[in-house]
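User: C-alpha cells in, sequence out, please.
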C-alpha cells in the first residue's frame, strides 16, 4: 500500500477545521442559552433570569426618547393612571416604577397584593421581581388607591443589568405597560 503524505495532511487539516467550526457553533449556542437569548427561556419570567450576563448593546439616553402623548392618554383611560416613570435608583440596584392615580377604580388592579409585578427587559431576557425585606415586606405600595396620590414599587436590579435608556415592560396580572424607557 502506497501512503500519500500530501493527501493525509490535507485530510487531517480538513478534519481539524471542521472540528473547530463545529465546536465554535455549539459553544455559541450554549452561551446564548445561558445568557437568556434563547426565546423559549426568555419568555418565562423567573427570579433566576435576573442573574444572566448582559449582552453589549447601544441604547439611547433617556432624555433623547420622547414620551408619547397618545400612550399617556391610553394609560389614563384604560388603567386610571398618569405620570408614569421608570427610574434607576439606589445606585442602579433598584428600578423604581411610579405613577399617579387619576381613577382609583381602574387603578385598583395595580395595587392588588395578590398580583405579582414583573419588570421585563426582553432583549436581555430578564424578568425582575420586587424584593421582600424581612421587617419591611415587599418594596411596593398596596394601599387602596386614591385619586391624585402618587404610588411606587421597586424592582431588584441585582447585577445592575438594566441601565438608564433600557426599554422595559411592567406586568401586574392583566395590567401591562410596554416599552417604557428607564431614566
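Assistant: Sequence out:
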Amino acid at each position: 500500500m502506497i501512503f500519500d503524505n500530501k493527501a493525509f495532511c490535507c485530510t487531517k487539516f480538513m478534519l481539524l477545521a471542521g472540528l473547530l467550526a463545529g465546536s465554535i457553533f455549539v459553544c455559541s449556542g450554549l452561551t446564548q442559552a445561558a445568557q437568556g437569548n434563547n426565546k423559549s427561556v426568555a419568555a418565562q419570567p423567573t427570579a433566576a433570569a435576573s442573574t444572566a450576563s448582559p449582552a453589549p448593546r447601544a441604547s439611547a439616553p433617556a432624555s433623547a426618547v420622547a414620551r408619547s402623548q397618545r400612550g399617556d392618554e391610553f394609560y389614563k383611560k384604560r388603567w386610571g393612571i398618569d405620570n408614569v416613570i421608570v427610574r434607576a435608583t439606589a445606585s442602579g440596584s433598584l428600578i423604581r416604577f411610579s405613577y399617579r392615580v387619576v381613577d382609583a377604580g381602574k387603578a385598583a388592579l395595580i395595587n392588588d397584593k395578590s398580583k405579582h409585578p414583573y419588570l421585563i427587559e426582553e432583549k436581555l431576557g430578564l424578568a425582575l421581581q420586587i424584593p421582600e425585606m424581612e421587617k419591611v415586606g415587599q418594596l411596593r405600595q398596596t394601599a387602596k388607591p386614591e385619586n391624585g396620590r402618587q404610588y411606587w414599587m421597586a424592582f431588584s436590579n441585582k447585577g445592575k443589568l438594566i441601565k438608564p435608556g433600557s426599554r422595559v415592560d411592567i406586568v401586574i396580572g392583566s395590567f401591562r405597560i410596554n416599552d417604557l424607557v428607564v431614566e
